[in-house]
Amino acid sequence: MTDTAPPAVQIEALRFRYAVRAPLVLDIERLEVGAGERVFLRGPSGSGKSTLLGLIAGILEPGEGRVEALGTDMGAADPATRDATRAARLGVIFQMFNLLPYLPVGENVMLPCRFSAERAAATKAAGGPEAEARRLLERLGLDARSYWNAPSRALSVGQQQRVAAARALIGKPALILADEPTSALDTHRRDRFIELLLEECRESRAALLFVSHDAGLSAHFDRALDLETINRASVEGEPA
Ligand SMILES: Nc1ncnc2c1ncn2[C@@H]1O[C@H](COP(=O)(O)OP(=O)(O)OP(=O)(O)O)[C@@H](O)[C@H]1O
């Protein structure tokens, strides 16, 4: 992170709906996440949190407005640029970016290094992709030796969430997007997991945008934001 680093996320005049006649889901005048900043975004179920992350990751395209991730205009970029940006510079922990179920845990974690030479190069100091994958798994509380060769589908949901987090963190991407990554963990493991995720982000100077409807998690973060206070669209969210 340098003084000249662009914001991790910059959104201006965003309006998004899933289909032409579908209701407006997001109407956000402005949202910025600074380089290296760790932000908690809360909002009730159905309020548009996953949609917002999908737009930042370039999986969804904004109807109107500008969505930049690490200085790349994800709405205007061609699909190849979006995919390359995501592979090289973003770590995502999303339900829809599930682990590959038949691939062993270790291979799942190292996947970003196969798609991006930049991510692979960033593991060099740690001894390469395998050493870094093992370190991250251990750090996140999973015994790498026992699980390295296990197919991901053989793991519990909570264990899979930790594998997904290790995969997001490998190769030090500058922005981590996390969508309810602690939903399957009990309170103690949840707090421990968040602390470790934050420590890893701090060490690699990654920005983190973490969404959840569990307001109790907000104290861990630099800043907490309520989606409903920045979103003018009138999608009815359910109470948290
Ligand atoms: N693929 C889709 N097609 C059409 N509408 C969708 C789609 N995905 C989400 N929506 C709608 O967009 C709105 C926002 O959904 P979204 O999943 O972003 O909310 P959320 O805040 O992440 O909810 P949760 O906390 O339950 O995951 C909801 O009204 C939902 O029905």
Model description:
The chain has 240 residues and is α/β, with parallel strands linked by helices. It has a single domain, classed as P-loop containing nucleotide triphosphate hydrolases (Rossmann fold, 3-Layer(aba) Sandwich). Helices cover 35% and strands 21% of the residues. The protein contains nine helices and nine strands. The chain has helices at residues 49-56, 79-89, 105-115, 117-121, 129-139, 144-147, 157-169, 187-204, 227-230, and strands at 9-17, 24-33, 38-42, 64-69, 72-73, 90-93, 175-179, 207-212, 223-226. The strands form two sheets. The chain has a five-stranded parallel beta sheet, with helices on both faces. Strands 2-1-4-5 form a four-stranded antiparallel beta sheet, covered by helices on one side. A hairpin with a 2-residue loop joins strand 4 (64-69) and strand 5 (72-73). Helix 3 crosses helix 5 (129-139). It is globular and about 50 Å long. The structure holds adenosine-5'-triphosphate (ATP). InterPro entries: AAA+_ATPase, ABC_transporter-like_ATP-bd, ABC_transpr_LolD-like, P-loop_NTPase. One of its GO terms (cellular component) is plasma membrane. Residues 9-240 form the ABC transporter domain. This is ATP-binding cassette domain-containing protein. Keywords: ATP-binding, Nucleotide-binding.
Mean pLDDT reading:
92
CATH topology (level 3) name: Rossmann fold
CATH homology superfamily name:
P-loop containing nucleotide triphosphate hydrolases
Task: Tell me the domain tally.
Answer: 1
Ligands bound, unique: adenosine-5'-triphosphate
Main sheet?
5 strands, parallel
Query: Please, how many helices?
Result: 9
**Poorly predicted runs:** none
Structural class: alpha/beta
Strand content: 15-25%
The CATH architecture would be 3-Layer(aba) Sandwich
Order of helices and strands: EEEHEEHEHHHHHEHEEH
Q: Helix proportion of residues, in percent?
A: 25-40%
Rg, rounded, reads: 17 Å
Report the principal-axis shape: globular
Strand order across the largest sheet:
6-7-8-3-9
Quaternary state of the chains:
single chain
State the total count of DSSP E strands: 9
N-C termini distance? 35 Å
CATH class categorisation: Alpha Beta
Protein name: ATP-binding cassette domain-containing protein
GO molecular function, one term: ATP hydrolysis activity
Pfam families: ABC_tran (PF00005)
Organism: Marinicauda algicola
